[in-house]
Each structure stands twice: as structure tokens, then as C-alpha cells.
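Predict structure. Chain length: 350.
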Amino acid sequence: MLVVHLGALGAVLRSTALLPALKRKHPHSRLVWLTDAPAQFLLQGNPFIDEVICSKDLQHHPLTALQYSSVYCIDKSLQALRLCQEFQSQRQFGFIEDPVSGGVLPATGAARELWKIGLSDHMKFFENQKTEIQLVHEALELGAYLRENYVLQLSGLEQRESDQRREGWKDASNQILVGLNVGCSTAIPYKKLSVSGHRELVDSISKEFRDDVRVVLLGGREDQDRALEIAKGKDVVVSPMNLGLRDGLCSVNACDLILTGDSLGLHMGVALKKWVVAWFGPTCAHEIDLYDRGVKILSQAPCGPCWKRVCEKELMCYDQVSFDAMIDGIRRGLEWKFSSSKQPSPETCT
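Prediction complete.
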């Protein structure tokens, strides 16, 4: 079988939660995943995936000559749908291209709900209460939804690197590392705090927890400069940000808790089973599942969610996120981490 999910990075990582159900539906099939670079690194070493193909390498790829029992197209994009046509398959689930209009259509009736939500802001923002991964699971006709976790596997070398970073970043053996994600995709740039907001948040964390907690700044290559600006004069660790996605996973794994906007850092934290304190402004909190290991904090901006890529409001949604709620989320995470039973903690939106 073939899974086609090109991007975005966080969405690709989230979709690994579908893999156990796909394997139950096709227990004897080889699973090939087609994606865009650099998402292949998030799928590296996944025990459910037999081969990953990057879209840039698809031309004349030998796997395009094979017959597939099923194609699962998760993306609602014409690029993904047209790549599906490079493969011979008996049946397609998810989405297809309308041969008449060239638009995107649900491949089966099961995908109609997800398709309709994509066409209606009112449905997406206010009516729908399902998580995105449940909607996709149902659209692909994968049986009963069991709310299974993301599937991400670090290598032994990566785990050792994480352990070394954890020990090197702590000032004391019992110190807790809070990973603060300072970046996000350029697609919706308002899913991160301002530089001044991050600096104020670092001060709030330091004041509340003193030496019991140390902040680690997390991000990607494009976030290095703003991370250094946030770190000026602060007792924080700036993690490596220019060594790629797998190295970024090592840094996230080294931390005990993750504090983040709705971006790749959130999905990395969920995949690595960290306690995640996630704040939401322009995007929909109900679409994200923290799997009872975290809290969701909603901006008080009256216009959210909006999914706008450009906003010129004087007071932005990221300026209206409660730092007190974030501190409380960290406190709850500490209680969860040191609980002997690790009982699920119901997700709350504040």
C-alpha cells in the first residue's frame, strides 16, 4: 500500500498515528510512504514503514512500476493527487482529483466530512470537535478509532546524544529542563511569541521555579538569530538549531517538558511522549490531541481561530496568551512527571 502525505512537517509526524491501523487493515502489505523533503527524516527508522520516497526523487523511481492494493492520499492538494496518478492502484482512499474540474474531491463517502470541514471556516472553527487525526482516520476507513499515539523511533545513538545533552544542560542532577520552542513555520508566522514576549516568559519561569527549572530554547535553522536575541542576559540554554530534524528531536527528547505554540515542536513533544504546554492563537486547539499529557492554552484574542497568514492588528493573538496559565501548565507537568502512576491528565483549555 502507498501513503501519500507530503507536508507540513508537523502534520506528517502526526499522521504516523495512523500506521498501526493501516497495518491492521493490511497485515501482509509492504507500506511505502511518499512525502516531501525534509519530512523523510521524521519517518526514518519507523518500524511500520518499509520504504520512504521523496517526491523530488519520484521520476523513474522503480516503486512507481509496482501495483498497489490501496493508495491513501491524506493531503488535500492537487500536487499530492497528481503524484498519486504516478502509481497503479486498485483503490484510493482519502482524496482524488475531479477529472472534469481539476478540483479536490473525497475519494469515498467516508472522507466527505473532512472534505466539507476544509471548505467551511464555520465548521472548522466552531462545529467540529474531533481531532484532525481522528477525522483523517475515519476518512481513510481504518476501522474503529483507538486514539493511538504517534509512532517515532530514536536510534540508540540519538538516545545517547539526548542523554548527554540532558546531563550537560542541567546545573544540578535534579533540575528540570523545560524546552521552550521559539519558532514556527513561515506559513502562519503568528504561532510563536514575539522576542520580547519570549524574554518575558523566561523571566516568569525563572521567578516562579528559580533553580528547580532551567529553560532550553528550541527551534530550527531559521530560528537561530531570534533564539540568541531571546537568550541575551538570561540563564538559558540555546540548543543546536542548524543540524537538522533528527538532531532537533534529540534536543526535544533531552527536555522534560515542552512549552510551544502550535508548530512542529508541539508534534515532536507529543511523539516523544513529553508533557506539552501548548498555546493556540490563529489555529484550532480542538484539532490537536495531546494524549492526556499536557494542557492547551487559548489566546484571549476575540478573532481566533482564523488561520490567517497575514494579520496587521495592533494587538496580536500571541500578545494575549496568559503567562500565568503557562506557568500553571508547567506546574501540572512537574506533578505529572513525578507521579508514580503517570495517570492520564485530562486536557484543559484555559
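Summary: The chain has a mean pLDDT of 95.
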